[in-house]
Amino acid sequence: PANVGIHALEFYFPAQFVDQTELEQFDGVSAGKYTIGLGQTQMAVCDDREDINSISMTVVQNLVEKHNLSFKDIGYLEVGTESIIDKSKSVKTVLMSLFEESGNHDVEGIDTKNACYGGTASVFNAVNWVESSSWDGRYALVVAADIASYAEGPARPTGGAGAVAILIGPNAPLVFDQGVRATHMNHLWDFYKPELASEYPTVDGHFSNTCYIRSVDACYSLFTKKFTKRYSPNPEQLIKSQDLDHAVFHAPNCKLVQKAYGRLAYNDMLQDPENELYASVKEWAKFGHSEESYYDKGLERAMMQFTKGEYQKKVIPSLFAATNVGNMYTASVWSCLSSLLSSSSDEEILNKRVGMFSYGSGSAATFFSLKVVASTEKFRDTLQIKTRLEQRTKVTPARFAELLKLREETALLKDYNPIGDVSTLAKGTYYLLRVDEKFRRTYARA
Ligand code: ACO
Asked: What dihedral do alpha carbons 364, 322, 12, 396 form, nearest 10°?
């Protein structure tokens, strides 16, 4: 099969949020720390009515309904998540309850885990399935979903929650470029979840930021080489970040994305330091890929300033959900692609190439790309991200803290009836009805 890529995207986020300016006041930090310093505007929160199973069911059912699909049309389903509520039973098997009525049980794929990277790994597996001898002619579906919450402290404003469903098949409007995925994986303790009974990670925040940027360097420089060799009309001249029409990143916070985009240009400059283009920032090339280059604030600011115009045009359209929902771990980078498609006209996006960077702590990262080859009207019509974000309900920071406390105390209980107010949920949202005395979970739909 040719032109394997994305046929449809659906994006679910919780219906309640906290305002980051109000959270700054509540937390007693200086005004602007979360909003300007981290680039975050609002953050989604769920109560005890939602878990990884429910948000995954919601996004899959909504995708199937909005696109008039039949569950029989899906031959592969994989879930990428790090929101683990069972050490054995996969989220994928819970999703099979949605397939029951169709009688289709012939669905390959299971769950994949590594921090924020599992969704991307699942997308690659799905693409590989469609391109392989195992393919049976049907769609592959990937769910990237997480509930991201942190213990009280500096990481808490970088939480969020969301789920993206990604429908994959041949002859798609968004086609993955072949042979250019550039991966970097290594063993790090930057962010991990060793406390199996807690939703909260153990995180070395500043270290995780530099791990992310180091992976940007490694993946992007390999990507430019692979891409130039395969697709560029001039194989002597490495492509540059300017050659990508859009850049979409995993977004733990939007400020880190801006730094990462600046870092692409920094890598470009190190490949071509005498180019006139870099005259205004050339002095920073002295840092090369040294240890200092990851910590020097002057270099970071200079590259952000240098790429400011391009960042506005090529990156900002993908960050609308990320700044208003927060980090969604595996779903984050796919929510950014959804934002870009939801907000771009055909004139803006048709025949354009999108570079994508996915990072999961621990660590696993890939830079890859796709091309938009047909109208994306269907994506705009069904995603409606801006409209749906405006329909959410704001909670106070005190209420936000209460909701996280409720999750903390009840997340893994048995014989438990959730108390969250079902009327706060958007129509079509699945929610937890009860966890019985044998830990079996049942759900209903709002
Ligand atoms: N106005 C404007 N900017 C401000 C203000 C203010 N009043 N106060 C602080 N800032 C800036 C700081 O200068 C800093 O910006 P800079 O890094 O560009 O200089 C930024 O706001 C954050 O301030 P810090 O003091 O660095 O924040 P802190 O140390 O409290 O926490 C961190 C930030 C480390 C990102 C924390 O939120 C965290 O641990 N988050 C989770 C980890 C994470 O997301 N890692 C990313 C990759 S791994 C993953 O995806 C999970």
From this structure: 120
